[in-house]
């Protein structure tokens, strides 16, 4: 049977998702990742139908360099959340899987006990060749999971590129995991990422590493006070945790709840999400225009020589850019 024949009517997906059917949820996510125009159309219909039932989860972004302990943390933190009990979905963005064909996240067995938990739904990184596309896929998966009644949605990303900015713009609470003994540079962290964080958690606070983790916590807590206040009007905090001893895990969840109450209390929660929706509308427009620009035949023809002219100083960057843009408008 061809994959096309496996498609169901939009109402069937929507009804299944709203009833919490995991299989139909998975299939609807797969559909939303398809590049076939007919699939895209069907997927948009499904999304439109479930949209009134979305928005009720708390969305948590988690980032940190490879090896910081993301999957170990999410396994333990996730098991804590499901024990509350709350339904939890974990989505992942792994930019390395698009670049190298391999994956920093994918090749180990990840979150084994969590993935077997009836209240947990884990979805690995979507396929795709551009971060823009992957971000769109992840946002659609998030909406579908919310419609299926997942109360907490974790979106995980490897903190090595632009993907953390995308995750920041699709979550309510942004959690940065850090190691105690590595300097900022070693952790590949840009200052910008720390500035986005609502909480910073020093991982592996156990055994011989406990003291170093506690010292690092104080250092980072002080550093966080130096950042200007964000639109969330929230003072970010630094915590420690261990995925091995489970120390600090309930405190991190308590902080998420405190944040949620703060945002709701100040009327900022919905406002923040509304602004995020606008952000994505403009992002999608920008990305689509850029793609159309570079795929245009006139631009393709003119670009190589103009690049050489700009590099050699024969013409200015502005004049080359205007020539290219004008060639587009002539159509
Ligand atoms: P990820 O690449 O960020 O997903 O990191 P992993 O969760 O795969 O962890 C990387 C390594 O750190 C593994 O060898 C883990 O066993 C180890 N690790 C993770 N969490 C802890 C922890 O809480 N304490 C200690 N001591 N080691 C940990």
UniProtKB/TrEMBL annotation:
Which is one GO molecular function term here? GTPase activity
InterPro entries associated with the record = GTPase_ArgK (IPR005129), P-loop_NTPase (IPR027417)
Provide one Gene Ontology cellular component: cytoplasm
Q: What class of enzyme is it?
A: hydrolase
Similarity comment text for this entry: Belongs to the SIMIBI class G3E GTPase family. ArgK/MeaB subfamily.
Cite the PANTHER family for this sequence. Answer: METHYLMALONIC ACIDURIA TYPE A PROTEIN, MITOCHONDRIAL, METHYLMALONYL-COA MUTASE
Q: What is this protein called?
A: Methylmalonyl Co-A mutase-associated GTPase MeaB
- The record lists the organism as Rhodocytophaga rosea
This protein's gene is called meaB
């Amino acid at each position: 049977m061809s994959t096309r024949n496996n498609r169901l009517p939009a109402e069937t997906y929507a009804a299944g998702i709203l009833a919490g059917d995991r299989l139909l949820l998975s299939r609807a996510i797969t559909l939303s990742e398809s590049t076939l125009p007919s699939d895209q159309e069907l997927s948009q219909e499904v999304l439109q139908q479930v949209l009134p039932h979305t928005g009720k989860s708390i969305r948590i972004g988690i980032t940190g360099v490879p090896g910081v302990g993301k999957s170990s943390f999410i396994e333990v933190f996730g098991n804590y959340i499901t024990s509350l009990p709350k339904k939890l979905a974990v989505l992942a963005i792994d930019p390395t899987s698009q670049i190298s064909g391999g994956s920093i996240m994918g090749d180990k067995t990840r979150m084994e006990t969590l993935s077997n938990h009836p209240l947990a739904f884990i979805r690995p990184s979507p396929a795709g060749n551009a971060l823009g596309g992957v971000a769109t896929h992840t946002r659609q998966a998030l909406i579908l999971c919310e419609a299926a009644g997942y109360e907490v949605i974790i979106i995980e990303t490897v903190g090595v590129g632009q993907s953390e900015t995308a995750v920041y713009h699709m979550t309510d609470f942004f959690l940065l995991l850090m190691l105690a003994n590595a300097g900022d540079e070693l952790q590949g962290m840009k200052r910008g990422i720390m500035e986005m964080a609502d909480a910073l958690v020093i991982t592996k606070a156990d055994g011989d590493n406990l003291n170093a983790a506690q010292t690092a916590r104080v250092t980072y807590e002080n550093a966080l006070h130096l950042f200007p206040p964000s639109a969330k009007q929230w003072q970010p905090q630094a915590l420690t945790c261990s995925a091995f001893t489970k120390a600090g895990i309930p405190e991190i969840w308590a902080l998420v709840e405190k944040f949620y109450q703060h945002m709701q209390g100040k009327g900022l929660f919905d406002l923040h999400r509304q602004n995020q929706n606008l952000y994505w509308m403009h992002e999608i427009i920008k990305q689509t225009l850029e793609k159309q620009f570079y795929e245009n035949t006139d631009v393709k023809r003119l670009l190589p020589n103009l690049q050489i002219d700009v590099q050699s100083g024969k013409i200015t960057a502005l004049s080359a850019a205007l020539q290219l843009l004008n060639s587009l408008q002539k159509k």
